[in-house]
Amino acid sequence: MEGNLNTMPLVNLLELLHDERKSGVLQIKTAPPLTIRLQVGEVVDGGILDWKGMEAIASYDIHTPEGEFVFEPGLQSGRVIMPMRTLLGEWARINDECHRFFGLIDSPSRVFESLGGSGLYEIFVGGRSVRTAARMWEVPLVIAMERVWTGLQQGELTPLNRYVWYKLRIRHPRARRKGEADEDLVKMMDGEHNLGQLVAAGISPDRLRRYLINGIMNGELVFSGRGWLLRDLLWELEHRREIKNLKRV
What we know:
Blueprint: E1 2-4, H1 10-19, E2 24-29, E3 34-39, E4 42-48, E5 51-52, H2 54-58, E6 68-73, H3 84-101, E7 110-113, E8 128-129, H4 130-137, H5 141-153, E9 158-163, E10 169-171, H6 183-188, E11 190-194, H7 195-200, H8 205-217, H9 226-248
Antiparallel strand pairs: 1-6, 2-3, 2-6, 3-4, 4-5, 7-8, 7-9, 10-11
């Protein structure tokens, strides 16, 4: 079974697979890609590349207007995450909440700082990302997003010009080729320099984002954490485009 989301929206597709009690793997070929595993019409696993679970699934835009999909039947293992109707409702709710927060927060990787250092926001002294805060608070990412959004509105937090992914060290799988495009990027991705050092050396963050997105999407860059990184990088680019459009009005 295959098709396009512009003729069969994702929600309708999942409802169809649920009603027909299908088992198999659904691949949505978009940026980011999404994988959903179903057993007898219920979701038992899924995510974006190596980022798995409901949080990863719900980070995907449930109303994506287009993109190819392929469903390959086959038995799957795992526990049902939640009943399909409940899952779709929760997915839509999280999507709506996140879109509201993205007015102030470009991605969960953005680092914020608290100068006061008291109460709920004391963990941001020295700078923390939303993703790190979610782990420290032991709450879902969407709740951490809401808390940071509230902190920004109340003046408790201020955004810093860096992201948690700046700490990542990625070893490029191939040696640089003299004269090729992005030779400088390939050379510095040696597993010793972190991505923040590439930015400090003069690599534009947007250029680095696009290179990482392309490398992850085409399978050239394979490393632990590429799923959440891809999701955040795409959010950041989407946010920047929206800001630029606002400036033109």
